[in-house]
């Protein structure tokens, strides 16, 4: 639930948006040369039809495949295996990979955000308007897809020429956006590699070998915050498409920076800082990491408690009280985990129902459903489960499950 990084339901509890680098390669985001003017647009005048071309060049079993007409002329390039290109074609056929370069939430003609220098972070995205929980900011298909094993096991010197050829097959606007991304290792000899390492999301195209890194140049401008105001998901939560969606999770004022979390927001502070340092070259100093020593200790304790309570709530044979459920909801509030509430709210809703508390079961089922849509997408499995619970708590299989019918 917390790490919806795969297009299928294979996300593991320790998966992360941005994977720690294999030797010399990370995955985070880095700089894109995307000014508000230079946003990548799908070709407006009669885009070429979608047509996959390749293999254009290979290293071992990994070959370049490109499609200049993909997603209405936005384009895409993949370095992957023949089997995976078939998966990709199937996903494309399923459709719904609707990229919107324009933020869905803007007032009048004013874009909802702009790119600006942020002290100590390079460039970042700044809100241009008042935004509310649930506002969708971006929807994009990947510019580049790289098979994970290619990226992690082939030597960078061998990767470099293939990647160079691959990127050259992107349509010019997307290629420009690609090269505008930041490579935080500053490795000019392997610039493409550096960009991908700094700015990629894990994606699973399905099958036994579907693990890839996906690069979305527009998304790469989000800086990290352990308590971000934007959540993201890949695919539609069961909808099996390639789209990366970002949604606002709390009210945002004009001028505020928009951020996502690159990592497990439930990890203790020191671990989070170590992770940002190793994978993206900075030690996080977000508002949660910059708390006083005493406050950090309290925050870490709350995070540990959240995990412990959730284990308890997942064990249907254990003893649970309304007080524990209230406590969990309070811990989430205190920790400001606005982008990571879905899992906790789902457990609270189910457990209220198991205690026979219809009113709270309905209330939390609604909150859980809303959070699931924001964090995992409208097609996520638990969305319909929470809808059912909200509609008919007494008819739900969990009704009074802990107290007897
Ligand atoms: C994905 S990029 C984010 C956009 C980037 N700032 C830019 O100029 O394009 C990730 C890189 O941004 C910087 N960054 C992101 N979040 C940061 C933060 N909270 N504090 C300091 N630097 C950050 C780091 O250099 C990191 O490697």
Structural commentary:
By secondary structure, this protein is an alpha+beta fold. The protein folds into two domains: 203 residues, SET domain (Beta-clip-like, Beta Complex), CATH 2.170.270; 103 residues. Helices cover 35% and strands 15% of the residues. The strands form three sheets. It has a six-stranded mixed sheet with strand order 1-2-3-7-9-8, sandwiched between helices. Strands 4-5-13-10 form a four-stranded mixed sheet, with no helix packed on it. A three-stranded antiparallel sheet has the order 6-12-11, with helices on one face. The longest helix is centred in the C-terminal third of the chain and has 22 residues. It is globular and about 65 Å long. The chain starts with 57 loop residues before the first strand and ends in a 14-residue tail after the last helix. Bound molecules: S-adenosylmethionine (SAM). S-adenosylmethionine binds next to strand 5 and strand 10.
């Amino acid at each position: 639930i917390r790490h919806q990084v795969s297009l299928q339901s294979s996300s593991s509890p320790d998966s992360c948006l941005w994977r720690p680098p294999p030797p010399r390669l990370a995955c985070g985001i880095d700089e894109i040369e995307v000014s508000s003017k230079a946003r990548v647009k799908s070709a407006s005048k009669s885009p070429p039809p979608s047509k996959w071309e390749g293999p254009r060049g290979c290293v071992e079993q990994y070959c370049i495949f490109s499609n200049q007409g993909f997603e209405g002329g936005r384009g895409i390039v993949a370095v992957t295996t023949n089997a995976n290109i078939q998966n990709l074609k199937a996903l494309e056929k399923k459709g719904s990979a609707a990229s919107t370069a324009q933020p869905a939430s803007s007032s009048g003609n004013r874009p909802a955000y702009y790119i600006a220098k942020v002290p100590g972070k390079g460039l970042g995205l700044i809100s241009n308007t008042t935004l509310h929980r649930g506002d969708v900011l971006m929807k994009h298909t990947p510019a580049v897809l790289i098979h994970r094993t290619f990226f992690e096991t082939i030597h960078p010197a061998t990767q470099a020429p293939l990647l160079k050829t691959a990127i050259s097959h992107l349509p010019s606007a997307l290629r420009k956006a690609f090269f505008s991304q930041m490579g935080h290792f500053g490795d000019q000899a392997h610039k493409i590699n550096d960009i991908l390492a700094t700015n990629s999301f894990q994606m699973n195209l399905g099958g036994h070998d579907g693990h890839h890194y996906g690069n979305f140049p527009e998304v790469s401008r989000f800086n990290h915050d352990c308590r971000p105001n934007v959540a993201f998901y890949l695919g539609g939560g069961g909808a099996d498409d390639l789209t990366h969606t970002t949604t606002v999770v709390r009210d945002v004022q004009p001028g505020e920076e928009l951020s996502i979390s690159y990592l497990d927001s439930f990890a203790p502070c020191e671990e989070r800082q170590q992770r940002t340092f190793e994978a993206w070259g900075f030690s996080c100093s977000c508002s949660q990491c910059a708390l006083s020593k005493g406050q950090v200790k309290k925050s870490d304790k709350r995070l540990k408690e959240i995990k412990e309570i959730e284990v308890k709530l997942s064990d249907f044979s254990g003893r649970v009280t309304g007080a524990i459920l209230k406590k969990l909801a309070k811990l989430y509030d205190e920790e400001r985990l606005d982008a990571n509430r879905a899992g906790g709210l789902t457990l609270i809703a189910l457990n209220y129902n198991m205690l026979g508390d219809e009113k709270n079961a309905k209330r939390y089922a609604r909150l859980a459903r809303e959070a699931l849509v924001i964090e995992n997408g409208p097609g996520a499995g638990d969305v319909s489960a929470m809808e059912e619970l909200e509609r008919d708590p007494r008819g739900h299989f969990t009704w009074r499950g802990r107290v007897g019918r």
